[in-house]
Amino acid sequence: MEVAISRVEKPPTDFAVTPFFRYETVEDVEASRREKRAVMKTVELCEMRIAGEKNYIPTVPADSIWKTENGQAITYAERFSEQYQQFKLGATQSGDGTPLQQLRPFGISDAQISLCRALRIYSIEAVHSLEGASLKALGVSGNELKRMANAWMAEQARGGHVVSELDALRRKVAELEAEKAAERAVAEEALEEAAADAEIVSAFSGMTEEQLKSYIKERTGAAPRGNPSRETLLRMAEEA
Asked: Alpha-carbon torsion 48, 53, 55, 58, what sign?
């Protein structure tokens, strides 16, 4: 007897589906016909447990084509690559999304979490994505759970906005600190130059005009012409 393989006409969003890979032993019909006896084979299957669907579990071969993108065929194993890798390694297969327990601050109860699990709803994002019949499947808790999920999503969005604002503020502070550091460096350099000039002026200020002329001649190879003022001699000595 062959395993019934469901064809998924319109796949739900990834948050609304929790994949589960498993092995199944089925009859190889073509081989059975050739051998004229029942020939069995083991295949890898992908169950897609859809949020809000208690009895409907689309099941497809893991290597069947989910879709073709840019000429590249994408299988269900590739679509749910993380869970497929867990399956091949023998690890516990986990779905995507944020655990429902994170809705505790918003009032979710153990009974509501159990109800969600019974309807194959395993994450806050899955609750948030529920619409129509899938939402109605939650019964009287549906609207309340949807409200909690919406509130959680809104809080995450606000948190992301605040983080962005903080990052922008940190960058602005860093830029201002860099500008101030550059200004301090320029000011310190100017002070050092002024101090050096002051030392030079102080060294020449004790010289007589004749000593200044001798210094200038020694440094430049030519004595000052004419009868320059003391201020001119000090400037020439500084430049020599």
From this structure: negative
